[in-house]
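Sample A.
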Amino acid sequence: MSGNVWMFSDEIDDEDLEFMSHDYVTYNMACEYYRLGIKPVVRMAHEAGAVYKIGKKVLIRRSLFEAYLREQRKI
């Protein structure tokens, strides 16, 4: 496993593994995984600078978003 994921291998389930396989996620995927509403996810993704628009599709770069969440947790 890459990164520090192996340290939490006893806490990871199939949903986590499937989510970690994506570099970019949609708003709906992020809402379901992080158990947040659409408005907080959209706001935080924009604050993190993790939003990418491809035509009408909007994606969140997971690595930037999670780094932002970790930083906000420290405050």
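Sample B.
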Amino acid sequence: MDAMDRAIIAELERDGRLTNVELARRVGLTTGPCLRRVQRLEADGVICGYRAVIDPAAVGRSFEVLLDVSLDSQDAETTGHFERTLTQAEEVVELRRLFSTPDFFVRVAVADLTAYEAFLSQHVMTIPRVKNVTSHFTMKTIKPAP
């Protein structure tokens, strides 16, 4: 990957809806070579996809909670079941398995505190071997995830 590839990536990170003509203009290439570079970056897995960034309030999911979750066992069956269960929950927008304590970081987006309590009670706390859940409520988002 060279400086031109990095420039293309930077522009697409800012605006994934750029036309090839506009992208080429911004990075100083003609359209053919620009398109071939983008296609190569996609084929190589550098560009993994494109997505729309949705306003959480517009879809009733503006209440975000960060959870630290510890399990009482870290065997493959326990962790696998936990991961599969939460991956299927639409409220979960991010799930990370961590080294050390806690075992998992979970980012949840719901409508309000009542919806969060229902999610926690009906989804998280029903998973076998959940030892501890600590909920962190965001006061203010300084730099949102991309």
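B remarks: The chain is about 40% helix and 20% strand. Residues 31-43 form the longest helix (13 residues).
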